[in-house]
Amino acid sequence: MSTCLVCDQPDETGDYLCHRCARVLAEQLRRLPALYSALAAFLSPATQGTRHGGHAQAVDGALPVSEHVLDLRGPGGMVATLESWREALHDARRWPAPALGISIPNRVGSAAAALHHSLDWIVQHWPAAGDLAREIRDLHGAAASVVHPRLVEERGTRLGACPSVDASGVICGAILRHYAGTKAVACQWCGCTYPPATWPGLKTWMDHDARDEMRNENPEEVEQWQSAS
Q1: Residue 123, φ and ψ in degrees, nearest 5
Q2: pTM of the entire structure?
Q3: Which helix (H) or strand (E) element contains residue 2?
Q4: Last residue of a domain, one of 134, 155, 176
């Protein structure tokens, strides 16, 4: 029995990631090259958030490019994250340093494919699997929030494990999500609600529970959620 390094749930396989989190990581790695390509259509600020209707609306006084999209597509964005993890993987497996492609799109595809190809080993043998999964999740989320903003809103922003404790002293541990337009965070499992005034304390409780669960290992970084609208 082990504990998944991403969702903190018990896992009978003894792997570093549970089956569900491993599947999510695999799917995100598979999608990243396509997301990288799709981001090109959103380099102009006028196209942000207007693609669902098929036509972009002009924005007066807009910058020539969207800095957020440019950062993701630039040398220090998506490609840097993927290649740094690919290099770490080669080092962990005592392989020669990976060869880099010529263009950034090619490098993104090669690095994502290489990580995906070694996913079984990563899940079963690499203690860094949790950090990798979280960084890929954040990278995928940053790109998807531009390309598919409505889908991201529907899924909500992942916050962390619910810290509520029942009468027997057991922590709930279900994953909390904040949905755009809602005034409070509600646990779908135990029903406990957290209004905005409690959010600073909520993060503190999450961090405390994560430290207890992982003992001396680094706690999972809790994503910063959207402010209530």
Answers
A1: -65, -40
A2: 0.61
A3: strand 2-3
A4: 155
